[in-house]
């Protein structure tokens, strides 16, 4: 398989897999393209490679910048904007984990806390509901703590500890 063919296959596969994780297919494809690109790419180059509209490129690049996994890069002598993805996969993992934690886990914790504390009924159903909310809070807090440690950890520490955990 030629390199360009392999890159396109990766981009297509990554885009398809991303939908399983709740990520827009095109956004994942744009990120994958920027990840495998040897040099920063312009919106025109992204449009041409992925066969998508300028608006689609702009919207998805902006989202990737908001996630902190793509940056604008200045190319001397060019007036166009160019974009580049961080190629450090460990840093990519940590940034995505940080954003998912902020966007998904923390709001859930807030709602669970409100639900657990704001129910005024003293019926058996209300007690069961509060117990369920407390248990969900405990599990979600544990996941949040694990994610926080993963964000702060260096790659070798996390992998060695994860490996030890898996051997038990």
Work out the radius of gyration: 21 Å
Query: What fraction of residues sit in β-strands?
Result: 5-15%
Helix content: over 70%
Main pleated sheet: 3 strands, antiparallel
What is the N-to-C succession of helices and strands? HHEHHEEHHH
Kindly report the oligomeric state of this protein: single chain
Average pLDDT value? 89
The secondary structure category is mainly alpha
Q: Using DSSP, what is the number of strands?
A: 3
CATH topology of the largest domain: Arc Repressor Mutant, subunit A
Low-pLDDT stretches are none
Largest beta sheet: strand ordering: 1-3-2
Inertia-based shape: elongated
Structure in a nutshell:
The chain has 168 residues and is mainly α.
How are the SSEs ordered, and which strands pair?
Blueprint: H1 3-18, H2 25-36, E1 41-42, H3 43-50, H4 54-67, E2 70-73, E3 82-85, H5 89-118, H6 124-152, H7 155-167
Antiparallel strand pairs: 1-3, 2-3
Helix pairs in contact: 1-2, 2-4, 3-4, 5-6
Key features?
three-stranded antiparallel beta sheet, elongated, single chain, 2 domains, 168 residues
Structure commentary:
There is one protein chain. By secondary structure, this protein is mostly helical. The protein folds into two domains: 3-85, Winged helix-like DNA-binding domain superfamily/Winged helix DNA-binding domain (Arc Repressor Mutant, subunit A), CATH 1.10.10; 89-167. Helices cover 73% and strands 6% of the residues. It is built from seven helices and three strands, in the order ααβααββααα. It has helices at 3-18, 25-36, 43-50, 54-67, 89-118, 124-152, 155-167; strands at 41-42, 70-73, 82-85. The protein has a three-stranded antiparallel β-sheet with strand order 1-3-2. β2 (70-73) and β3 form a beta hairpin. The mean pLDDT is 89.
